[in-house]
Specification:
- The structure is a single chain.
- The protein is mainly α.
- It has a domain at 35-82.
- The protein is built from 4 helices and no strands.
- α3 crosses α4 (67-81).
- The longest helix has 26 residues, at 36-61.
């Protein structure tokens, strides 16, 4: 199992913060008005849209792959990109 040292953890957090950009306080205020169940459902809906778009793009790029091979490719990409 990979252990993250406090130094590496801070580095990862800093990198993530840089990738995400500045905090959108208006968006946070809007999200706080929504119930936790609605936030989770929205997150799951967005995840489905992203995964479906990845699948469609990869299917066009690799029409020779079986559904199982395509699924493995998607999971490989998820492991690489988090």
């Amino acid at each position: 199992m990979l252990e993250i040292s406090p130094r590496n953890q801070h580095s990862s957090i800093d990198e993530l913060a840089q990738r995400l950009g500045p905090v959108d306080e208006a968006q946070i205020r809007l999200l706080l008005r929504v119930s936790p169940a609605q936030r989770i459902q929205t997150m799951l809906d967005m995840q489905a849209v992203i995964l479906n778009s990845w699948q469609s793009r990869l299917r066009r790029s690799h029409p020779e792959l079986t559904d199982l091979e395509l699924c493995h490719l998607i999971f490989d990409r998820l492991r690489q990109n988090g």
